[in-house]
Amino acid sequence: MIEMILDAAQMLIRLDVILIIAAGLTLGMLVGALPGFTTVMAMAIVLPISFFMDPILGIPFLIGVYKGGIFGGSIPAILVNIPGTGASVATTLDGPAMTRNGQSRKALEIALIASAVGDFLSSFGTILVIGIIAMVALMIGPPEISAILILSLLIIVVSSSGVFAKGFLMLLIGMFLAMIGQDPIGAMPRFDFGFHPLQAGIDLLPLIIGLFAIPEILLAIERRKSNVVDARQMRPEGERLTWAEIMSCRRTILRSTALGGVIGVIPGVGQVVAAFMGYSAAKNASATPERFGKGEINGVAAPEAANNAVNGPTMVPLLTLGIPGDNITAIMLGAFVAQGLRPGPQLFQDQGVLLYAILLSMLVACVLLLVIGYLLIPLFARVVGINKAYLVPMMLLFAVAGTYVYRSNPMDLYFMIAFGIFGYGCRKLHFDVTPLVMGFILAAPLEYAIGQTVLLSRGDLAGYLVSSRPITVTVLVLMPILIFWIARRQRRQNRHVEAAGR
Fold first, then answer.
1. How far is CA 221 from the centre of its chain?
2. How far apart are CA 393 and CA 221, in angstroms?
3. Where are the domains of the chain?
4. Tell me, what DSSP letter sits at residue 241?
5. What is the Cα–Cα distance from 67 to 298, expressed in whole angstroms?
6. C-alpha angle with apex 210: 204 to 212, nearest 5 degrees?
7. What is the pTM of this model?
8. Contact status, residue 293 vs residue 94, Cβ threshold 8 Å
9. How far apart are CA 93 and CA 91, in angstroms?
10. What is the pLDDT of residues 62-117, one digit of tens each?
């Protein structure tokens, strides 16, 4: 493994790689600083661009957009109490209070440092353990893969926002859409209803752009007037952050990093939960908890370190098992597949050096985030007040062009429009589209794994599992307990989010 990492480092030390990561970070911070535009939307729109680059350029570019967007959301959260991304909701508990106290510069700088340090440490830990996890994953077979995929889908449904029944319905819709075309074992056509364009199935790209980008654009058009912010609020004020203040936050940053790292490995949980858990842990550990909510610097460092620490570990289930943990890693999966790199344990054997180079690019991105963020925070602060009417047409143009250019198939545009309208309706009716996307992505490998398991059982599925696959039986037995525990924590976390919103 050490030899692979050294070879990967040599592959990564290129000026074009550094520049493309910097470009991704800058774009991500720009979008994250715009209230109403999300990191998911940005990644969905620029995803087709990565298809025309080498994997060592295209995927680190998306990683830069990812990391830049998560931090960028803290800028409007701190300055004007409008979280740029969902991951920055917890930052509004103390960030705006620091701004009212004339300490907006310190708040932005501690958010940047906590984000970079939390992300760097968790990404470093990911690099150390992911190879071992991939080796273990190589020893599991179709029955274990089936159980893990089922568990992952259930976790995603339970962890999604809104009512469980809505999430489960969206999961079923996503799995049905994935079945259109040919079945993965017999290659028999199904659910095409005699419509020729459906015989090849639905491509992931128009679905992602339609569900994630188009609804955001339409919603931004609706609320563009409410996003106009007084330009005087966009100036970082007060003294700069001191070394003593940074050191006073070190335990908070390390604690939140550990929490975020663990949460990042679990599919479907994500940055919002990590941020609130980091904030709650910091408040409980503080000798002066009454200062939280009134402009406490640790109240900014805790959620920012936690939500950024999620970024690296989300690659563990994605690369070792091919299971995306959230919307963003679902988009990353699309990038890997388009580059001919199907995530899974076998990929570490076939393309180990390239994968480690991509993982090391996360560390480079963290360092560049610190540098670019420190230099450009004043610029990104002014971006908060840009009128969205100037940006929406450009975003729409990129969405349409990216969808068409990938395969030059006009049907993809119709699919994108259809999914865009559907996604917009889901947002209005408070349906989370995450289970739909995960169901669409994981349905094919799940069906294939279940089919293989049935063939291996030779007609005695229960006996085969009990006698030969104890890990599968263990996962299936523990599944209800784990789902119940996650559902309970999710309900508790939703109450915290609602209380913070009030």
1. 24
2. 10
3. 2-234+245-501
4. P
5. 21
6. 95
7. 0.80
8. yes
9. 5
10. 999 999 988 988 888 888 777 767 678 889 889 889 988 888 889 999 999 999 99
